[in-house]
Amino acid sequence: MTVVAHKILRRPLILTEKGNTMREEANQYSFEVARDATKLEIRAAVEQAFPDVHVVAVRTLIVRGKDRRMGRGYAKLQNWKKAMVTLKDGEKIEFFESF
């Protein structure tokens, strides 16, 4: 199984208070990922993008798109997939620590 990390991992989710708490207390990091990505592909993509970490668990959920006003009508933003990745104790992703 060949995984291309930049096609699976869309962006890190770093600007939330809940995300900061999860990172500090439970060693969990959140990412927006491709909708068709499986947990195994997400695990491989994180380990490929950040070679010095080992993934213990991956949890995923579909975040429903919000309704937005467009003139007199409404438009729905697309649904997207969120992944919460748990790392081995003592490991961290340095990219997140700079924010």
Describe the secondary structure blueprint for this structure.
Elements: H1 5-8, E1 9-12, H2 17-26, E2 28-33, H3 39-49, E3 55-63, E4 67-70, E5 73-76, E6 80-87, H4 94-97
Antiparallel strand pairs: 1-2, 2-6, 3-6, 4-5
Task: Describe the overall structure.
This protein is of the alpha+beta class and 99 residues long. It has one domain (5-88): Alpha-Beta Plaits, CATH 3.30.70.330. The protein has helices at residues 5-8, 17-26, 39-49, 94-97; strands at residues 9-12, 28-33, 55-63, 67-70, 73-76, 80-87. A four-stranded antiparallel sheet has the order 1-2-6-3. Strands 4-5 form a two-stranded antiparallel ribbon. Strand 4 and strand 5 (73-76) form a beta hairpin. It is globular, with a radius of gyration of 15 Å. The model has no long low-confidence stretch (mean pLDDT 91).
The CATH superfamily name is RRM (RNA recognition motif) domain
Strand percentage: 35-45%
**What fold name stands as the CATH topology?**
Alpha-Beta Plaits
Low-confidence stretches: none
Number of helices: 4
Distance between the termini: 33 Å
Let me know the number of strands: 6
- How many discrete domains? 1
Approximate helicity band: 25-40%
